[in-house]
Amino acid sequence: MKKSTQFDFGNGLEPAHKHKNGGGWIAKTAHVEATAFVSGNARVSGNAWVSGNARVSGNARVSGNAWVSGNAQVYGDAFVSGDAFVSGNAWVSGDAFVSGNAQVSGNARVYGNARVSGNAQVYGNAWVYGNARVSGNAQITDLRLFLVTLLPQTKDKMVKLAKWVVDNNLSPQWGSNNALEYKLGTEISPQNEADKCEWNECSSGIHCFPIGFNPQWQNYDITKCHPIEVWCKPEDILYGGMIWNWGKIRCAKVYVPTDKELKLNKRIFARLKDKDDNKES
What we know:
- It contains 2 helices and 29 strands.
- By secondary structure, it is mainly beta.
- The strands form 6 sheets. A 9-stranded mixed sheet has the order 1-2-3-6-9-12-15-18-21, with no helix packed on it. It has a 7-stranded parallel sheet with strand order 4-7-10-13-16-19-22. It has a 6-stranded parallel sheet with strand order 5-8-11-14-17-20, with no helix packed on it.
- A hairpin with a 4-residue loop joins strand 1 and strand 2 (13-18).
- The longest helix has 22 residues, at 259-280.
């Protein structure tokens, strides 16, 4: 039989008990299955459910009508609240918040200062991190889709990236034997990109960087190199890096814009910005 006492979850003392598997505090109104783990400083309150082999640890909080199930983990200083649902092998950690009717499932990861709210869904192999905000009815299924929300885009919704080249706009051959020439106004793709469209950091493809990223941060030699802007369709991103190698973006193919196209794109965005500023004033 559970030994009932009282604990303050933030709104005054209420009936609660310590979970046998981990020692964390559980409100009387919450439900935590015996197989689930709730560690000493973690809290489960409200009408929240924690089931299966789920783990709530560190200083994590699960409250409201939230569910954490399967092999999901909520840890660090993370919060899961409202009617949010975290399931499968998903992890929510760091200072992340998952709230509203949001769902995080599959092998998804939400961490850092990320916020997932509203009716948003993060699933598959998606990683949402840093100061990212995913809300409304957004659906993030993998890093490719999420990456597009972070990087600058052209008027045609192509992602803007930097490709570092040497003289004559040739690729520097970092780890490759084939130097490609990046001629202005042309689409560039390796010959074998067609059968290499898996999400893999070692995928064949064109190695690009976010604009403003210094390749020296990843120990690349940029002696005699300079960056040029290239554009890539979201579906042609083969790999978008992880938190530890953010600069490693591989694309199946990229387009090298002409100077005229670059200037035109900048003018279009300047006009759009002026319209937005006028609306606000």
